[in-house]
Structure formats: structure tokens, C-alpha cells
Amino acid sequence: MAVEQTLILLKPDTLQRGLIGQVIGRLEARGLQLNGCKMMHLDKSKCDEHYAHLIGKPFYPGLVSFMTSAPIVALAVSGPEAVKVVRDMCGPTNARNAMPGTIRGDFSLSTQYNVIHASDSLETAKKEVARFFKKEELFAWERMMDKMTASPDEKK
Ligand code: UDP
Ligand code: MG
Known about the structure:
Elements: E1 3-10, H1 12-16, H2 20-30, E2 33-40, H3 44-50, H4 60-67, E3 72-80, H5 82-90, H6 103-107, E4 116-118, H7 122-132
Antiparallel strand pairs: 1-3, 1-4, 2-3
The structure holds uridine-5'-diphosphate and magnesium ion.
């Protein structure tokens, strides 16, 4: 089991609805470690880069307009198998199909306004963390609690 880092964006709906703290609280409570945290305004070119796989889809213009409508909060978090763990915490894209207990399943009813972005693979995570954070904006720090997130054997 490897310790991984993944990229999370808390979308404009999360900020507008006052849910930033609750979502970060869930990530912390799960045991994930915060390595980077910043608020920023996305512009269209950053959106095009981040959502390159979606350019040309009918919903894409709406997605850009949503993602640039208010600031977002970008997070880099790490932990055991963090990429999968965070994706599972989010639930599926269409929040109406998300199980209660997931972030989307508890906080959203929308496919587009679905609260959170999370990297979908380790390879994507590396690119996405680098897209949103400079090296000096990422912090590796020793946290006492990390001894309790998984057994030493599991962390080999
Ligand atoms: N999206 C949308 N309509 C769709 C599919 C996706 O508006 O039919 C938006 C939604 O905000 C989603 C984002 O585009 O989170 C990225 O889509 P992706 O398929 O990568 O979903 P995700 O990885 O976020 O679950
Ligand atoms: Mg995606």
C-alpha cells in the first residue's frame, strides 16, 4: 500500500453554499493530510487545460461558466491510497446517483454543481497537483496522528 497525493478542487457551488469547512473536515477526519491549500479564481484557459477531455461536450460552455463564476479552493492531500480513497469519498459524477455518506451524495443533487473535483488516477494526480501548486506551496510535515492512520505493515 502506497502513500499517494491527490488534487482536490472545491468548486464554486461549495464556496457559495458555505460548505468548504464541512468538506475539508471530512477529508481531515478520514485521516488525509493537507499538503497544500489555496483559494483562486479559475480562468477559461486553466479550465480548458484541466478539463481538456471534455472540450466539445455540449455541457462544456456551461461548465466553464460555472467553474469561473466564483473562486475555488484547491487542496493537495495525501494518505494511504489517497487517489482511490478520495474518489470513493466523492461518489459518482451525477450526485443523484451518489450514495448517502459520500460527499456528493450528502451535499449535491446535480451532475455539474457537484461540489468537488478529485484526480482519477495516480498519473493524473501528479499532473493535476503540479497544475495547481508550485513546489513551495506544498508542505510535507510530520503529523503525530499519521502513526494511527494505518499499521506500519500496511505502509510498507
Ligand atoms: N460534467 C457536467 N455534465 C456531465 C458530465 C460532467 O457538467 O454530463 C461536469 C461535472 O462538474 C464534472 C466535471 O464536468 O464533475 C468533470 O467531468 P468528469 O467526467 O471528469 O467527472 P468527475 O471526474 O468530476 O466525476
Ligand atoms: Mg474527472
